[in-house]
UniProtKB/TrEMBL annotation:
The chain crosses the membrane at residues 20-40, 80-102, 111-133, 145-165, 186-209, 247-265. Pfam families: BPD_transp_1. It is a multi-pass membrane protein. This is Carbohydrate ABC transporter permease. Residues 76-265 form the ABC transmembrane type-1 domain. Its main location: membrane. It comes from Rhizobium straminoryzae. InterPro entries: MetI-like, MetI-like_sf.
């Protein structure tokens, strides 16, 4: 009797949740599927009437145009370089700062942590001009390194690494110190391997942030050969018209790195972001 009742309740729940889940999947999957299908259509068929979802026949002419006419390959390399180096620098700084704030006791520890966290309350628009002036004085304008270094360290990255490292037992570090292990070796031989989930999650998010960044490269870069993917995408939108075939093809290509990254590292995300969040 109980089993039948539970089965009946499960069936009613599925009857309600099934259509809702299907609707959500359609809403999330339809835009990227439309983007891919449109990019595979001939230029004259993108806005043909009546509209068709599937390309008939599929063609790669839009992708060839993106590489031949706009130099998208160079812009793709620039974004890949900026995003990879920026993510690596951010992870390194966050790892060191998180280790210091999580495992060392010093005067003003809480003050410095709150000072770093308070930077989250400052809108980017307020500090754009000071950072721009600093980069100008350093000679980093119109340089990919100017795009990389300005937003490399983030308070959110420090917070994620601090919270995760706090969950690592102090006994491991004390045993290493008793054996005479220097702090830099403890950091890179013990803390780093044990923090792989948090590092992977932080690296993925930083990579995506830098890959999708438009405002900062727009302010820094003036040479077209140093454009990133986002600047190249925006260049297809003119005052009077939009180059839809090339824009759609470039949009599909620009999604591939972030999609591959998330699929490869998805098992680290929740573990990296939530482990140690409630531990003291």
């Amino acid at each position: 009797m109980t089993t039948a009742l539970l089965s009946s309740r499960a069936a009613r729940d599925w009857a309600f949740r099934g259509p809702l889940i299907a609707l959500v999947l359609i809403l999330f999957l339809l835009p990227p599927l439309w983007l891919l299908a449109s990019a595979l259509k001939a230029p004259n068929d993108i806005f043909a009437w009546p509209p068709t979802l599937l390309p008939s026949p599929a063609t790669l002419v839009n992708f060839a145009t993106a590489f031949d006419q706009s130099g998208f390959g160079l812009f793709f390399q620039n974004s890949l370089f900026v995003s990879t180096i920026s993510a690596a620098i951010s992870v390194l700084i966050s790892l060191m700062a998180g280790y210091a704030l999580a495992k060392f006791r010093f005067k003003g520890e809480t003050f410095f942590f709150m000072l770093i966290m308070s930077a989250l309350m400052i809108p980017l628009q307020i500090i754009l001009i000071p950072i721009f002036i600093v980069l100008k004085d350093l000679g980093l304008l119109n340089s990919l390194w100017g795009v990389i270094l300005a937003p490399a360290a983030t308070p959110s990255g420090v917070f994620i690494m601090r919270q995760y490292i706090r969950s690592i037992p102090d006994s491991l570090l004390e045993a290493a110190r008793i054996d005479g292990t220097p702090e830099w070796r403890i950091l890179f031989r013990i803390i780093l391997p044990l923090s792989i989930p948090a590092i992977a999650a932080l690296a993925a998010f930083n990579f995506v942030w830098r890959w999708n960044d438009y405002l900062w490269p727009y302010l820094i870069i003036t040479d077209q050969s140093k454009w990133t993917v986002q600047l190249a995408l925006a260049n297809n939108v003119g005052q009077w018209d939009i180059n839809w075939p090339r824009l759609l093809a470039m949009s599909v290509l620009s999604v591939i790195p972030t999609l591959v990254l998330f699929v490869s590292l998805q098992r680290y995300f929740m573990n990296g972001l939530l482990s140690g969040a409630t531990k003291e």
